[in-house]
Write a structure and sequence with these properties.
This protein is mainly α and 367 residues long. 70% of the residues lie in helices and 0% in strands.
Length: 367
Amino acid sequence: MLFLLILCFVCAFVATALVVRFARGHARRYAAGVPQRFHLGHVPRLGGVAMLAACSVGWAWMAVAQRLGVPNQIRGDVWLAGALSAVSLLGVAVGTVEDLSQRLAVRWRLLLTVAAAALAAWLLELAVPRLDLAWLDGFWSASPWFGIALAVLAISGLPHAFNLIDGYNGLAGTVAVVCCFALAYVALQVGDRQLAALVLVLAGATAGFLVWNYPRGLVFAGDGGAYLWGVVIAIAAILLVQRHRQVSPWFPMLLLIYPVLETLFSIYRKAARGQSPGVADALHFHQLIYRRIVREVFDDDESRRMLMRNNRTSPYLWGFALLTVLPAVLFWDRTPLLFAFIALSVVTYVWAYVSIVRFKVPRWLRR
């Protein structure tokens, strides 16, 4: 598995370097006045294409290594590798069209990601088999369509959740890497080396991309990269729960609570103001931290000053994500404790958001 990690890292590093070198022209189409822009200059947003190329190499190697006589302990599965590549390709293609044109309507992106999720559920027979709630599991087992619908919702929703938190250099990419390692750890705990290798492929590809993305900000993941992270991590989480009954279905929820909370709170915030959830704004958690906490950066060059503030924002969110990932990894098989930490995460997120809005952030947190 270490070989897979290194292979995908190198492939993504080289592919992203090519994007940085030859794809700057398309970045000129990205408007300077949009709320999500926190950089100067023209930066390519095709990191997702480079990561998908690296992941495809890794998954292909998983599928054919044993057939080529290369000894390893990963059970090769051509169908799994092919299905995952096909679904990821569809997701990245949707995001890349938006990255290149800036004209793909939100409703079409949502519909196409739902189509990718339905394709994944069909090809891989995905479903959330249980909720570990005694009063509901009997009914849930008798109505398998609920499990399939929840799987489709997760696979179609998580790409957009990662897209919402993908606002600053290294932010979403690092969260994705941490989640991949957490999934790999639990998969190894239950003896599923194949699933662990599957997410380590994505971790290696993302790490190769991050070399160019943080701290210099030479390339962005774009919608394509966010959709790749969301699709693969959601599929891996569902497979882990589906294959191994000892893994609580609430483990992935706590593991991914940061992007999920950001999405749900964003929908609530916009609905309360009478706006469509698809309308972009500058009131996400990471944007508030950028504006109201990371402020004291001095440099004569405006571009460098903005880059320094951008880079100092991400560690705040990495810390928040780690506060949810660590208990998820420690208590992956204990539903009551996972419930308690999910509730604590929700309270902490809302408290922190409201504190920033009301300018009640402790002085030691401001920079």
